[in-house]
């Protein structure tokens, strides 16, 4: 057989009919005549049908005209009032949308496109368009019915392998499905559940002041930001980061501890009815682990309410794709709806503090659920980081590559941003696990010696002990406020049997952190300070650059004050915390509700509110202040609980 002859190449033709002698009228006369001929050719029935359809069309047109005309009339009457109200120069951006007064009605309102919202580091942590509202409502309804029927319901997931803009298309590990649970590990109320104290009589005056501050902050959140991530107290609005009610979840255990039962119940209802993780949204693995996973686990432990554990397990499952990298060092971001994980847009590095400060939460999740993969994933990270080259006497660089698994940007060492909680979690995991994991302890002890050797100095003229930074052998006298977690961590280690000189160092650093607040005109620490190393009497110990003068309502100073008071009993630490609370009330409190971070801690007349209340103000700052003012060492005993880096208490597994 011969193959058929090849077809000629396809050509496109345009056919043109020329009609000489006809005057040009756009062909309209011709079209009219041919329409009339076609109409005549129709049967009577066909004509009637066509006429009937035309009549229907006209009727519809008439009806919709009437309704539109009504609306126009309304708009017209609104705009008649308009000119009086409108500012002479209307703002370029629309005014922020206000949340309704009633949180329940607002929580279900249609999603708006959230404002872009930037954090330290990655610019791509923005919320994506949430799923349709109707879908959310259907899921809510199904969830409500399931809960009414007494069963925990786990949403179905439309999962599929997807390829993100940078890399991994990962099959979400069991996605949101509830993994088969070992019968013996079924969740049950925590044996350590802490009874909520309802009686204000049990609270001293300072604790009552913290409760008042919390109520004020909560009132703002409830009124203007209910169910959203963060309150913008000045504009009486909100901002989204993950679109998961971050402040509400971060604050759950604080409400429990402060005895705010009504508020807790209302928030619990929101978690039960509105908190759904099947959302097309990128979350930062670290931030969402410490705030959301940690917050839910603590809420479960304190209240004994299994709802929080179920939510925690669902969320933990959705974070797991982040660990599917060539090196097993997790990506910074993961989409909890699609299961696609990825590094930041500009690099394949992750931050060292971020990948090493999720262990307490994932390990606890494994212990509670009996599902080992959570613990295995994070402990693999710990093992790999432990044996990496590039450390300096236990100090770690700030970045680690998710492909190679190696440290990058070698030679730069800090106890501040991007490295801070690595050190904190070495100690706290060791405590959490019952002080058996000696490798964690050894890494911690070595790091403390590394800090002493390379980063510790005294300022002039006041001889304040501080922790600076090292960049390629050059010392910088710069210290982030974030470093003020360190006195508390050192004191905690000493309490758990580590060398007594750790406590001495803790106390010296505590003095310094207090001075970082005290020496500012508002009594609130700036984000970063530089210490004076030169012995001229005219210079102050603590110096602040214009770009670093802001205060974000961070907890680290009061966190350490809590540990220092709890473990030494020295009242001065309570007094220092009291000063700080008074400063927050004087300079950060927004009368209509909420507290705001401020731009200038050196200008008490105009501290410049930044219109943002970070979730950690309720999750950490106010919680630590309340615990600092307590004289009851059994209120979240440090022999029973270990606090994650977002101040969420988790139980110590076994007595040492
Ligand atoms: C919190 O999210 C955590 O404490 C974290 O470890 C550091 N940053 C903030 C508070 O400042």
From TrEMBL:
GO terms for biological process: carbohydrate metabolic process; ERAD pathway. InterPro entries: 6hp_glycosidase-like_sf (IPR012341), Glyco_hydro_47 (IPR001382), Glycosyl_Hydrolase_47 (IPR050749), Seven-hairpin_glycosidases (IPR036026). The keyword Endoplasmic reticulum applies. It is a single-pass type II membrane protein. One of its GO terms (cellular component) is endoplasmic reticulum membrane. Pathway: Protein modification; protein glycosylation. Keywords: Calcium, Disulfide bond, Endoplasmic reticulum, Glycosidase, Hydrolase, Membrane, Metal-binding, Signal-anchor, Transmembrane, Transmembrane helix. Belongs to the glycosyl hydrolase 47 family. This is alpha-1,2-Mannosidase. It comes from Tursiops truncatus. The gene is MAN1B1.
